[in-house]
Amino acid sequence: MASIALTTSAPQQTVNTFIYLLIHYYLKMAGRVTAQPIDMNNFGNTFSTLDTEHFIRMYQCNEGCCGPKSLVIVNDKRIIVRREEASICCCLGGAHIDSAIFMRDIQLLREYRGQSNESCFTTIVIIVTCTWPLLLFSQCCGDQAKMLEIKGGFGSELLKFKAEEMKIAADELSSIILPLKS
Fold first, then answer.
1. Total-model pTM
2. Which of 22, 45, 177, 182 is 20 to 30 A away from residue 73, measured at CA?
């Protein structure tokens, strides 16, 4: 039985090498894309980032699969917020409130802890109405939220962040507000 030797010509080896390098380069570069660019004038809020403002960061907090949602856009002059209420059906969005807060008007930042009697009352209602499985499910699939209260001439606003991003957001806001106060 004769053996068949597979040989490739020089042009074929060049093509194979080129294809190998092209695939290798594509796979190497594919891992570098981490997020799509954000269009700051199309994030679903009444207020958009103006041409004179510089985008700094966007924070999203989703409490549970169908729970309340919060989107906070921080730029060098304003905080743009969209709060969306929990929806009855996961496929429908809840009612929302959009707001814009000017950095120069903020006088106080503080972590908001809420009132303990509300959580006790809420717990009793959840047990009596047998909705505790929904609460358990929402805690498993959502973000743990922390609230930052900001006060100024406009009154008081509560901003919701993921628990692990709260300190970053508070430090970031402080570093923007502090130069405006001197």
1. 0.64
2. 182
